[in-house]
Specification:
By secondary structure, this protein is an alpha/beta fold. The protein contains 9 helices and 12 strands. It starts with a strand and ends in a 17-residue tail after the last helix.
Length: 303
């Protein structure tokens, strides 16, 4: 039976979106403001990327502990009860940056990209939107992240860009690479991954390990497809996620002013389908995280 409570995650900011063109938060103050907007509208989890504020950095991703720590401190001061899901996505073999941040700041959740993807986007004229790249996540890299998450008592959230990657999560479990009930995110809408189509959900759900918790990360240009997916996910018992990392557009096609507007729209859909946004305490229970042994604001080592 579908639970009447739903965990809503807000993905506050992406990694490459130009803050001069789109209202994505970057600075500690902006991230804290966005976290409060999300909390006020029903989100209980924050998916966090970290972007540099150094002069000339272009607000590109950073794993500098000082910058990451400043962002997390500001967020935790503003919304101390919310769960943090830290991104760990990184291209290449050197994972020392995200590993150091996992060990130093110990979020309750962390994304774990569960397989590799040719990350592609094509323009209308057939040209590549960016040089074709491989988002490499071989098994040894996935295991390295899972080992650190186990060491730091961080629950993995498996990001899956394709059906085969969903199936791989079950193999990781059978192999002993992690224990417990998986948290799985279906990433849908990346042009070279799974399309944002509601008719794909039954196939994805059929391939999940038993009792898995799941959500859809719906991205891409088609706002109607994105919001239809959210509604179907809510109806089928999934948890929900939105935010300016995933989309800039509201269900009516208007550009969202901020993260709060997107979460408000998603909460409304949840309620329309008979679901109620979970509080942070309820989200910890649903995700089987239990009560934190330390207050959320104390989980981070001071920098």
């Amino acid at each position: 039976m579908t639970s009447d409570k739903v965990v809503i995650t807000c993905a506050l900011t992406g990694v490459l979106t130009d803050p001069a063109r789109f209202n994505v938060p970057v600075t500690p103050q902006e991230m804290a403001d966005a976290a409060q907007q999300a909390r006020d509208q029903g989100a209980s989890v924050l998916h966090t990327h970290f972007r540099s504020q150094q002069p000339g950095s272009g607000a590109l991703p950073t794993w500098d502990p000082g910058e990451v720590g400043a962002i997390l401190a500001a967020v935790r001061q503003r919304v101390p009860d919310m769960l943090i899901c830290m991104s760990t996505g990184i291209v290449g073999k050197d994972i020392s940056g995200p590993v150091e941040c996992l060990r130093r700041f110990r979020p309750e959740l962390a994304a774990c990209n569960a397989g590799s993807l040719n990350y592609l986007k094509i323009r209308k004229n057939g040209a590549w939107a960016w040089p074709p790249m491989l988002f490499d996540n071989p098994v040894r890299k996935v295991k390295a992240f899972l080992d650190v998450m186990r060491e730091c008592e961080v629950a993995p959230e498996f990001e899956c860009f394709d059906l085969g990657i969903v199936r791989s999560v079950g193999m990781y479990l059978a192999n002993g690479m992690f224990e417990g009930t998986p948290n799985v995110s279906f990433v849908m809408g990346v042009e070279s991954g799974m399309p944002a189509r509601t008719d794909l959900l039954p196939f994805l759900l059929d391939e999940l390990p038993p009792k898995s918790r799941w959500q859809v990360i719906a991205t891409g240009a088609g706002h109607q497809d994105i919001w239809a997916l959210h509604r179907t996910a809510a109806e089928r018992g999934g948890n929900l996620r939105t935010g300016l990392e995933d989309t800039f557009y509201l269900p009516n096609g208007d550009r969202a002013r901020d993260n709060g507007q997107l979460v408000e729209a998603l909460s409304r859909i949840a309620i329309q389908t008979g679901r109620e946004p979970a509080t942070p305490a309820e989200a910890r229970e649903i995700l089987a995280l239990g009560a934190p042994t330390r207050q959320p604001g104390d989980r981070a080592v001071q920098v």
